[in-house]
Amino acid sequence: MKIALAPLQGFTDLVFRRAFAKYIGGIDQFYTPFLVLQKGDELRTSHRREVEPNVEENLVPQFIGNSLKEFIFFRDYLIDLGYKKMNWNLGCPFPMLVKKKKGSGLLPFPDLIEEILSGGLDDRIELSVKMRIGYDSSDELGAVLSVLNQFKIAEIIVHPRLGKQLYKGEVDLKAFEQAMVLSKHPITYNGDINSLEDFQRCLEQFPSLESIMIGRGLLKDVFLAKKIKGEDISSSQERLDLLEKIHGEIYDSYDSYLSGDTQILSKLKPIWEYFASNFNNERKVYKAIKKAGSIKKYNAAVAFAFQQGAKD
Ligand SMILES: Cc1cc2nc3c(=O)[nH]c(=O)nc-3n(C[C@H](O)[C@H](O)[C@H](O)COP(=O)(O)O)c2cc1C
Predict the structure, then answer these.
(1) Do residue 198 and residue 241 come from a single domain?
(2) Contact at 8 Å (CB) between 292 and 264?
């Protein structure tokens, strides 16, 4: 089973990915959160930093856009940097982007997807797509997949919710099954795998799956990919040590290029929304971190987290 770490804007940036690869492992493919052009042709420094220089192993840059011009910009930019794979985001549900026919907002417009792929695909770089099962209705799925079937696409990652659902409600496994039947490209499952049991259930339902992508589940239990691969780290002390190492690495990396408590805390604190679940008494841990208004208080809250021990 191939396991990818899902891109999560604000969480899985280069600092997190590199620390994860160095200390935890179990991941076959990493993705950047989506890169986007500002004012049609500018890429923010923070987005450039995600992919420049090209040094991360198994990193697939992801971009979002709804025009051939944007597609070609990212394609050529990533080819120039030496990347062999790129991922097009057709899944983002943020209303501001959806309104502009970006992310899942492009799913009701298969003709536009076709036009972009016709003009934009290039043999020098492999394309994968990450998508929802539709924006408004899963009835959109068939038309989108029949367009994708016409092109050379390496992989389609399907998160079986509608764009309009955001992250609410159940995943629609019937629609996912339909995607597996309709697509001639390999399909990767993504959504709500938070435990080994969730993974086993998924595999029972879709025994032909060869690849999954996990986001929040891997932030809440950083050892989940290793558990799935049967490489569990058995001692709780060993896990705690690794959690300390990954946190220390993330802390030091932000500290090296950000300045001032406010900037550093604005990167570190949000991670704990999910990361706190790696510890016993996760609610108390998260509350302590959220309350910390200075680096000194943050460090005290982190020490409190580590005193609670690693969850089984
Ligand atoms: C805070 C947040 C940010 C996200 N950012 C991105 C993104 O940049 N690109 C993307 O394709 N998906 C993004 N996603 C969606 C995830 O990659 C994934 O599809 C979704 O969380 C479902 O998988 P999970 O249940 O394993 O987390 C984001 C999700 C969340 C919650």
Answers:
(1) no
(2) no
The reply to whether 108 and 160 lie within a common domain is yes
- Do 146 and 55 fall within a single domain? yes
Q: Note if 202 is an active site residue.
A: no
pLDDT at residue 12, rounded to an integer: 98
Residue that finishes a domain, picked among 200, 228, 256 = 228
pLDDT digits (tens, 9 = 90+) for 40-50: 789 999 999 99
For the CA of 214, the nearest atom of ligand 1: 26
What residue numbers bound the domain in which 165 lies? Answer: 2-228
Strand order in the sheet with 126-132: 59-60, 29-31, 2-5, 211-214, 187-190, 155-159, 126-132, 85-90, 62-63
Contact present, 60 and 30 (Cβ < 8 Å): yes
Q: What is the largest CA-CA distance in the chain?
A: 57
Nearest CA to ligand 1 atom 28: 8
pLDDT reported for residue 163: 98
Task: Extract the tokens encoding 36.
Answer: 């986007």
Tell the residue number behind the tokens 């959504």, with chain if given. 191
Annotated binding site for FMN: 62, 130, 159, 215-216
